[in-house]
Amino acid sequence: MADFHQNGNITTLHDLRVRSPEDLEMELRTFAETRKISLILPCLYSELEGEAMPHILEELSKVSYLHRIIIGLDAADEAQFRHAKAFFEGLNQNHIVIWNDSPRMLALGDRLKAMGLAPTEKGKGKNVWSSLGYLISCADSAVMAIHDCDILTYDRDMLAKLVYPVANPNFPYQVAKGFYPRIGGGKLNGRVTRLLVSPLLIALNRVIGSRDYIDYLRSFRYPLSGEFAMRTAILPDLRIPSDWGLEIGVLSEAWRNLARKAVCQVEISDAYDHKHQSLSPDEATAGLNRMSTDICKAIFRKLAADGTVFTQNTFRTLKATYYRCALDALESYYNDAKMNGLQIDRHTEEKSIELFAENIVRAGQVFLENPNETPFIPTWNRVHSADPAFLSDLQDAARADEAEYQ
Question: How would you classify this enzyme at the top EC level (predicted)?
């Protein structure tokens, strides 16, 4: 994907295949002498038993410019936490495993509930939020990165490319979003980006008219990637969604808080593959069925906050327009895949489009019935204002768990 196209909304930083990864890492080591870089890994215990995580660990152990790695561990009992600690001992960097289900962490959760500030549901959003709280409490990093823990094609070059734009003190970027082609197993993947987000944004432009926010989202090559890097000064005021709209939500926060010149996207891989979610057409609270609804709600909420008026007729028209746009997009993706010797199951893809079309209306109905819904976890600035001791207590609890459960 070596090109140099700029879309005019945000900066796109390309991998033009002329610089060695070793040279990039050497420069990052120089930056890290005065601007410490930390990495957050939000993971489920089950991912430690998968194919991807051992390789990710092996690659990360070779990274010399990281100051700290924070592993947020979900869905683990005490024995599994002990095993996770042993699992991550292979890391050469300062690191900590935060057991999000420990008695100490649950007690902190009860404390948040008493203040009306607790996350409303478990999941990646809450995991990332808690890990950010620990990082903020350490107050020693200038740059942080997040990436998923199920990347089957991981190598440490991905991380170097991801953090470079925000680690370089001569660059203006506060947020960097990774992008890549989603291919694997001889197939063109990335269904939700290809068949929902991209055609939905085109349809929104046609139905409600041009909006700067829509143009902004359309500027991202892969808006649903789980790979971000940020300068830590913006973290205390960052609102993290608790539902599956996390990636769109973070981009929306960058739109709300930063100038466009402070946001970029960076090419981090030629081929990226990770765990694939099932469509779950018969279960609205699982898989891509749930994800697509949450993503639609996240986009509708942001547009409404910027002054767009939605009605039931708007969503009916949007569904029909989206459906046509998605089928046109499928034709383009099918031809692209064929030219590159990749497979696309058109029947399965059209079933996905039909489900996503229904979920546009469902998400719209949920929005109209509850326009005040705010599935955002409170910012760390707000938590600190309500309880100035909470961040230090969070750090103490995580370190106490680390010391006790050997």
Answer: transferase
